[in-house]
From TrEMBL:
Pfam families: DUF475. Keywords: Membrane, Transmembrane, Transmembrane helix. InterPro entries: DUF475. It comes from Rhizobium freirei PRF 81. The lineage of its organism: Bacteria, Pseudomonadati, Pseudomonadota, Alphaproteobacteria, Hyphomicrobiales. It comes from the Bacteria. This is DUF475 domain-containing protein. The chain crosses the membrane at residues 12-33, 39-61, 82-109, 129-153, 173-194, 200-220, 257-280, 301-319, 325-343.
């Protein structure tokens, strides 16, 4: 008997994303008309919302895969909470509240004043956001680097895509804290290249990013240990939920900051990136329900390589600007190659299994 999930079409997973796209683009066009009073302004706002949505999707392929990997271990209750509350936090928290908080802290003003600044003086608002880019990139890059390295420095990991790299990393995983040492060495290298206040800000933000990752890991382990004493129905998954929210935030840092290169309008940025976030949510649900990660054995590897590259790019962006399009296309290309490798593996495996299956069938018939 075919399960409802198995028979569900790919397009059906994106129905909400399509609806949000239509509504978001219409709202963006309205903002453009309301702000400028011209059809040119309307078309520009519409186009920027569409470009930001595509940018967010391209930057978040790996995010969806990592989310799906963590979600499959969570209880259905916490899966539902992440996919409902999580999207609210992702759209409103990271795309609206986070930029306002950065400006409020950097300019020493209250959040309401920051909101008024975004609405009335978008150029000044954008300048403050750009000025805060270095510590944000250092924090997010460190957190993401720890996520990627922890995946590969795992002595229990027995499926390897790029064997000569991953086998060595799995072998050295028996050395306690090797991934932390690697990150700290990289932090010291970048700190030595930067000058004065930039070096100090980078160092402090990187340490905070590292501590945040370690604290989340400790909290998740503590909660998981305490949940083992509960019944299966009562187990939650708050630790995993918290980990995914911080992970989502780290992925969002680069997109939110980079969006100001296209427009200084906070609300258009929120609409465009919010549309993209809905597609990430839809992709995550599809990957979990269809078991795509289990079927394509190297897809997860591609996502974590993309995370490592993104983390390094965020570090490099503290020295020089790298267009977000390059970041997004690089991650998407890695995931595409890993998908292609998975399909090739499945075909080779199917061909190798065919003679054995034929022999077993002949025996059964005999």
């Amino acid at each position: 008997m075919t399960s409802p999930t198995a028979s569900k079409s790919v397009l059906s997973y994106f129905s909400w994303a399509f609806a949000v796209t239509v509504g978001g683009l219409a709202l963006g066009a309205f903002l453009g008309w309301n702000t400028t009073g011209t059809f040119g302004g309307l078309a520009t706002a519409f186009f920027i919302c569409a470009v930001l949505a595509v940018l967010e999707i391209s930057l978040s392929f790996d995010n969806a895969i990592v989310n799906a990997n963590k979600l499959k271990e969570m209880t259905p209750v916490w899966q539902h909470r992440f996919l409902t509350w999580g999207i609210i936090i992702a759209v409103f928290g990271m795309r609206i509240i986070f930029p306002l908080a950065i400006v409020a802290i950097a300019a020493w003003i209250d959040p309401w004043e920051a909101l008024k600044l975004a609405a009335t003086k978008p150029e000044q608002y954008a300048e403050i956001m750009h000025a805060a880019h270095l510590p944000i990139a250092a924090f997010g890059g460190t957190f993401l680097m720890m996520v990627g390295l922890t995946y590969f420095f795992n002595y229990e990991k027995d499926v390897h895509w790029i064997g000569f790299i991953e086998k060595r990393m799995a072998h050295f995983a028996t050395v306690k804290g090797i991934e932390i040492a690697f990150v700290l060495i990289l932090v010291l290298i970048f700190t030595s290249v930067l000058d004065g206040d930039d070096a100090t800000a980078f160092l402090h933000a990187s340490i905070y990013g590292l501590l945040t990752f370690l604290l989340v890991e400790v909290l998740a382990g503590f909660l998981d240990a305490s949940q083992r004493t509960m019944s299966a129905a009562a187990r939650g998954g708050f630790g995993a939920f918290l980990y995914l929210e911080i992970l989502d935030a780290s992925f969002s840092f680069d997109g939110v900051i980079g969006a100001f290169a296209l427009t200084q309008n906070l609300f258009i940025i929120a609409i465009g990136l919010g549309i993209g976030a809905m597609y990430v949510r839809s992709m995550t649900i599809m990957l979990v329900e269809k078991g795509t990660l289990a079927h394509y054995r190297y897809l997860e590897h591609g996502a974590f390589y993309a995370i490592l590259i993104l983390s390094v790019i965020m570090y490099i962006q503290t020295l020089t600007h790298i267009p977000e399009v390059i970041t997004g296309l690089g991650g998407a290309a890695l995931i595409g190659i890993s998908l292609w490798s998975s399909i090739r593996y499945n075909k080779r495996n199917a061909l190798a299994q065919a003679p054995v299956q034929d022999e077993e069938r002949d025996r059964a018939e005999a």
